[in-house]
Amino acid sequence: MHSDIPQQPLPPIRIGYAAGAFDLFHIGHLNVLRRARELCDHLIAGVVSDEMLELTKGARPVVPLEERLEIVRSVRFVDEAVAEVVPDKLETWRSVRFTHFFKGDDWKGTERGLALERAFAAVGVEVVYFPYTDGTSSTRLRRALDLLEASRVATN
User: Fold this and answer.
1) pTM across the whole model
2) Do the Cβ atoms of 136 and 26 come closer than 8 Å?
3) Which residues contact 52 (CB under 8 A, 6 or more apart)?
4) Helical (H) or strand (E) element with 140
């Protein structure tokens, strides 16, 4: 059936990608995913693999990858969760094809952040920075757990 009403083009779909370890899941993680989802139509969370975390941060996560993937998949703001297994974000983009990349503002203005912005601009991806949630981090939680464990061992 033909219609004389002109068809309006659909707005482009904004596909967001928010990567993180998401180890010891906390309110900061939730805030990032919530804010990212507000700025896109479909949110993919990249959960950094155990091996990649060991390579980039020098430590294995407390919670294994499969459990972190399940936790992140269960967050209502997340449409899809994938394991991030390569260090090159452009390589990740080639397989996922997101239009917006969400990153913590600790990268903003740094050499690494500017290089990331240039690489993504070349393929039409917008980099959006979010501030970290004050007072909460997986590193601080890990330290607290280590102190509790050391205290427990010392008293036994």
Assistant:
1) 0.82
2) yes
3) 84, 85, 86, 87
4) helix 138-155
- Cβ 36 vs Cβ 102: under 8 Å: yes
Count of alpha carbons within 13 angstroms of residue 81, beta-carbon side: 21
Residue 133: which region, alpha, beta or left (left: phi > 0; alpha: psi -120 to 50)? beta
The 3 state secondary structure assigned to 78-95 is CCEEEEECCCCHHHHHHH
The tokens of 74 are what? 């269960």
- What tens-digit pLDDT sequence spans the chain (156 residues)? 555 677 777 777 999 999 999 998 998 899 999 999 999 999 999 999 999 999 988 888 999 999 999 999 999 999 999 999 998 999 999 999 999 999 988 889 999 999 999 999 999 999 999 987 766 656 666 665 656 666 666 777
Give the HSE-up count for residue 12: Cα atoms under 13 Å, Cβ half-sphere: 9
* Tokens 């991806």 sit on residue: 125
CA 52 centroid distance within chain: 14
- 3-state helix, strand and coil shares in percent for the chain, rounded to the nearest 5: 40, 20, 40
Please state the φ and ψ torsions of residue 65, each to the nearest 5 degrees: -50, -50
